[in-house]
Specification:
The protein is α/β, with parallel strands linked by helices. It is built from 12 helices and 17 strands. It is globular, with a radius of gyration of 20 Å.
C-alpha cells in the first residue's frame, strides 16, 4: 500500500503544474489513475461542529485514524484529547513493514500523524513542548513528536528536520541524550546524504535526515506581488545540492527497502508507505508559483515511481490525494486581482496569470475549504469513487491491508 499526499494540492495546483509543463491538453501522472473521486476535508471543534477549513494536522489525523479532530491536534480526539491508534501502528501490529517519506521535517504535521499523538503540532522536539504540557515525559506523557517517531522503530523514515532530532531529551529515562542518540541506540541506520542512503541495507530501521529543516525546493522564481510580476520562466534551484535526493529518489529507495523488509518479516507480509510532497503547501503560503509548481512536478514524479511499482506488483494499492485545498487560482490575463499575482510563461509559450487572495496579512496565504481529488489503482481502488470524506480513506487503507 502506497499513499501519496500532495500537501495543499487542490485542483488549481494540479492544473497549474499541468499547464506549465505538459500543456493544457497534456496529462500528468496524477491524471492517469483509473479510479478518481473527491473527498471532503473539514475538521471539527471540541464540540464536534464542523470547522470548514482544516489544517494539515487535523486532516492527516482523519485518514491516519478515521477520526476528525480540531486543527493543530495530531492523532488525538477533539474532545478528550485522547490518542487514537494510527494506520501505521495497526500495520506494525500486524507485522507489516512501514515507512514515511516527506519533503518536510519528519516531525511536521502530516508524517507526525502516523507516528505520534500530541495536543499541538508545534511540539516537534523535546525543546518544543510548551503547548503540550500533558504530553511531556515529566507528566507521564510520550514526549515530543521526534521522540515518539523514534520509539516506533518505523522501518524507513526519510525527510528533513535534523534540528528536531538533535535536541536533547530533558526528562525521563533518556535524560541527557539527544533524540538522534536514542535513534542509534534503537538500531536506526542514520543517513544524511544520497550516497549513504544508497548504501543502507534492510534489516535495521533507516532514519534519513537530509536537511536541518524542510528539503530545499526544486524550482525558484519571483513570488507574486500586489502589482503583479513581469512574465517569467521558472528555473532550477541551485541550492538543491546533488547529495539531497529528490522526492522520486526517496520514494524509489523507500519502496525497495520496504519490499525487502517485508520479505524478511515472513510470507504474505506486505508494507505500508506514506509519501508527502509537503512544499506545494509551503510555497502556496508564500505565494510563490514557481516553487509551488516545481514541488507539484516533483510530487508527480514520485507518483510515477509508485505507479510503475504497482504495474509490476498488481496486488499493491496506490492512492494519491491532498490534505486540503489552497490559495492559488488561474485568472484571465486581463484580470486585476485584489490580492497578489504573478505571470508565468509556460512550456507551451503562453502567458498564465496566477492569483493569490486568501489572506491580506503578512503571515502568508491561507488554506481553502474545498473538496480535493483522490485517485487510486489496485485492490480496493473503487472505494475512492464518488464523493467521500477523509475519514473514509482510513477505512480504505485498513481494508486493503487487511487490518483489524
Amino acid at each position: 500500500m502506497i499513499l501519496l499526499v500532495g500537501d495543499g494540492m487542490g485542483d488549481s495546483e494540479i492544473t497549474l503544474a499541468r499547464n506549465y509543463t505538459v500543456g493544457a491538453a497534456g496529462r500528468l501522472h496524477l491524471d492517469r489513475f483509473p479510479m478518481t473521486g473527491t473527498y471532503t476535508t473539514y475538521s471539527v471543534d471540541k464540540q464536534g461542529r464542523p470547522n470548514y477549513v482544516t489544517d494539515s494536522a487535523a486532516s492527516a489525523t482523519a485518514w491516519a485514524t478515521g477520526h476528525k479532530t480540531v486543527n493543530d491536534r495530531v492523532s488525538k480526539t477533539p474532545d478528550t484529547n485522547r490518542g487514537v491508534p494510527t494506520i501505521l501502528e495497526l500495520a506494525q501490529r500486524s507485522g507489516l513493514a512501514t515507512g514515511s517519506v516527506t519533503t518536510a521535517e519528519l516531525t511536521d504535521a502530516t508524517p507526525a500523524a502516523l507516528t505520534s499523538h500530541v495536543t499541538d503540532r508545534s511540539c516537534q522536539g523535546p525543546a518544543d513542548m510548551e503547548r503540550c504540557p500533558a504530553d511531556t515525559r515529566a507528566a507521564g506523557g510520550p514526549g515530543s513528536i521526534a521522540e515518539q517517531t523514534v520509539a516506533h522503530s518505523v522501518d524507513v523514515l526519510l525527510g528533513g528536520g535534523r534540528q528536531r532530532f538533535e535536541q536533547t531529551i530533558t526528562e525521563g529515562p533518556d535524560h541527557g541524550a539527544t533524540v538522534l542518540d536514542r535513534a542509534r541506540q534503537r538500531g536506526f541506520q542514520v543517513v544524511t546524504d544520497a550516497r549513504a542512503l544508497g548504501a543502507v541495507r534492510p534489516g535495521r530501521p533507516v532514519l534519513g535526515l537530509f536537511a536541518r529543516e524542510e528539503l530545499p525546493v526544486a524550482w525558484i522564481g519571483a513570488p507574486a506581488t500586489a502589482e503583479g510580476t513581469a512574465p517569467q520562466r521558472c528555473v532550477a534551484n541551485r541550492k538543491r545540492l546533488e547529495d539531497i535526493p529528490s522526492l522520486e529518489e526517496l520514494t524509489r529507495r523507500a519502496i525497495t527497502l520496504l519490499e525487502a523488509r517485508a520479505r524478511q518479516k515472513g510470507p504474505g507480509k506486505g508494507f505500508f508507505l506514506q509519501v508527502e510532497g509537503a512544499s506545494i503547501d509551503k510555497q502556496n503560503h508564500d505565494a510563490d508559483p514557481c516553487g509551488q509548481i516545481g514541488e507539484t512536478v516533483a510530487f508527480d514524479q514520485a507518483v510515477k515511481a509508485a505507479r510503475e511499482y504497482t504495474a509490476r506488483h498488481p496486488d499493491t494499492l496506490v492512492i494519491t490525494t491532498a490534505d486540503h485545498g489552497h490559495s492559488s487560482q488561474i485568472v484571465p490575463m486581463a484580470a486585476r486581482p485584489a490580492g497578489l499575482s504573478a505571470t508565468l510563461i509556460t512550456d507551451e509559450g503562453a502567458p498564465m496569470k496566477v492569483s493569490y487572495g486568501t489572506h491580506a496579512g503578512e503571515e502568508g496565504q491561507e488554506h481553502s475549504g474545498v473538496q480535493v481529488r483522490i485517485a487510486a489503482q489496485g485492490p480496493q481502488a473503487h472505494r475512492v469513487l464518488g464523493t467521500t470524506d477523509q475519514t473514509q480513506l482510513f477505512t480504505t487503507l485498513r481494508t486493503a491491508l487487511n487490518l483489524r
